[in-house]
């Protein structure tokens, strides 16, 4: 039953077979690199699109019960590490990319929530969400998916605690610290209202992320069928002790959400890249993308921005090398 769920429901292997049969009827030779690339591309795009729309709808429906005002109230009830844990968990049901999370982070900060708590949210939101859990399960299996989510939450909680203890409240830009926060009573939504909200979020989010899915799957198809396996193993395999560092810093200039990054990670792993190296790449792309850092620089001063980057990089590197050492437990 577990294998059936993994392959046919989450992995949707029936789509892979269906795409293969369709291409054969169209005269495409599936044994060539081009034919294999087309099959990989169409299968991944269709599968991710189906999962993406279903997950966005479900997560958005859940989000409708946690508007910003209510989230502030809930988070304000917790203190210490418990508040950081709540901030990280809240990030799992919020926007899918770092640039979308930053405005919410700014709102939480201006509302007077502890700085460490808001950073736990900021780290967790793009790196870990319910959608990534299901999509990771569909490709890598439940062990890797659960481990990825667990270490992502740990990085978010620990990172927030470190930033809290640094006492850098003065490193937040004045226009955020001095912003007045008014408590707005959230309207009561009916179930049809929540369903409409979820549908609107599906359309809005899908339009934003679909181009990145196409790019990510395209890169994955290129890696999967055109780049020799020995090359990936040499650069990101166990023969290169700096593979994790390389993957992390290559990921920073890129901008994609988790849905556009997973196809690339899938192809790298199948070609011989180590698991921890692949996870470090995914975390760097989703959490430390250059556009999001530029946007965040508008809200916080260089010293705090540097601490945020340093905490995330150290956490990502530790995860990478740790998973490389324990890869046998997951694969």
UniProtKB/TrEMBL annotation:
Top-level taxonomy: Bacteria, Bacillati, Bacillota, Erysipelotrichia, Erysipelotrichales
Membrane topology according to the record: Multi-pass membrane protein
Keyword Metal-binding in record: no
Homology family: Belongs to the UPF0718 family.
Descriptive protein name: Permease
Native species: Absicoccus porci
Transmembrane intervals: 40-62, 74-96, 102-123, 135-158, 209-227, 239-262, 274-297, 304-323
InterPro entries: DUF318 (IPR005524), UPF0718_permease (IPR053166)
Keyword Transcription listed: no
PANTHER family, sorted: PERMEASE RV2963-RELATED (PTHR42775)
Subcellular location: Cell membrane
GO cellular component: plasma membrane
Annotated keywords: Cell membrane, Membrane, Transmembrane, Transmembrane helix
């Amino acid at each position: 039953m577990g294998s059936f769920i993994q392959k046919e429901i989450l992995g949707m292997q029936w789509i892979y077979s269906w795409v293969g049969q369709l291409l054969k009827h169209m005269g495409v030779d599936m044994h060539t690199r081009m034919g294999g690339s087309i099959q990989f591309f169409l299968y991944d795009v269709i599968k991710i699109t189906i999962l993406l729309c279903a997950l966005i709808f479900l997560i958005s429906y859940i989000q409708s019960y946690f508007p910003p005002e209510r989230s502030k109230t809930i988070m304000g009830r917790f203190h210490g590490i418990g508040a950081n844990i709540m901030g990280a968990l809240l990030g799992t049901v919020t926007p899918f990319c770092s640039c979308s999370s930053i405005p919410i982070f700014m709102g939480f900060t201006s509302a007077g929530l502890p700085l460490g708590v808001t950073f736990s949210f900021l780290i967790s939101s793009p790196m870990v969400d319910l959608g990534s859990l299901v999509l990771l399960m569909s490709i890598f299996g439940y062990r890797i998916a659960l481990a990825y989510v667990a270490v992502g939450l740990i990085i978010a909680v620990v990172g927030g605690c470190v930033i809290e203890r640094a006492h850098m409240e003065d490193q937040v830009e004045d226009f955020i610290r001095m912003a007045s926060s008014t408590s707005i009573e959230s309207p009561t939504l009916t179930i049809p209202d929540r369903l409409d909200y979820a549908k609107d979020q599906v359309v809005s989010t899908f339009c934003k992320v679909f181009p990145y899915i196409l790019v990510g799957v395209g890169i994955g198809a290129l890696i999967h069928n055109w780049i020799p396996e020995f090359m990936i193993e040499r650069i990101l395999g166990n023969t290169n002790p700096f593979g994790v560092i390389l993957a992390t810093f290559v990921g920073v200039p890129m901008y994609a959400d988790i849905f556009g990054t997973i196809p690339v990670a899938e192809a790298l792993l199948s070609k011989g890249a180590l698991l921890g190296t692949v996870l470090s790449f995914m975390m760097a792309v989703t959490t430390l993308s250059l556009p999001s850092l530029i946007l965040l620089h508008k809200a916080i001063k260089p010293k705090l921005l540097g601490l945020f980057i340093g905490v995330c990089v150290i956490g990502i590197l530790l995860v990478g090398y740790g998973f490389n050492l324990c890869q046998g437990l997951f694969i």
